[in-house]
TrEMBL record:
This is Phage Tail Protein X. It holds the Pfam family Phage_tail_X. InterPro entries: GpX-like, LysM, LysM_dom_sf. Residues 6-56 form the LysM domain. It comes from the Bacteria. It comes from Kingella oralis ATCC 51147. Gene3D superfamilies: LysM domain.
Length: 76
């Protein structure tokens, strides 16, 4: 039995960053994952036309997601 695939149909004005943020809660690293799952998307303009079906990979487990280093404050 295959795992169901999550898909999204683009709407006028969508960008990959916007879709990633809405679906995953963050676009950090997710845009790249969407592009890996949809190699032909790189041929589209940055603002996607309506009607493109995009495969959305499952979210990575928290342990494998990239974490950012703590913020360094130069001034108090």
């Amino acid at each position: 039995m295959t795992k169901p695939t999550n898909t999204y149909t683009s709407r006028q004005g969508d960008t990959l960053s916007k879709i990633a943020y809405e679906y995953y809660g963050s676009s950090t690293g997710q845009v790249e994952r969407i592009l890996e799952a949809n190699p032909k998307l790189c041929q589209q303009p940055p603002i996607l036309p309506a009607g493109i079906i995009i495969v959305l990979p499952d979210s990575e487990p928290a342990s494998t997601q990239t974490t950012l280093p703590p913020t360094l404050n130069l001034w108090d």
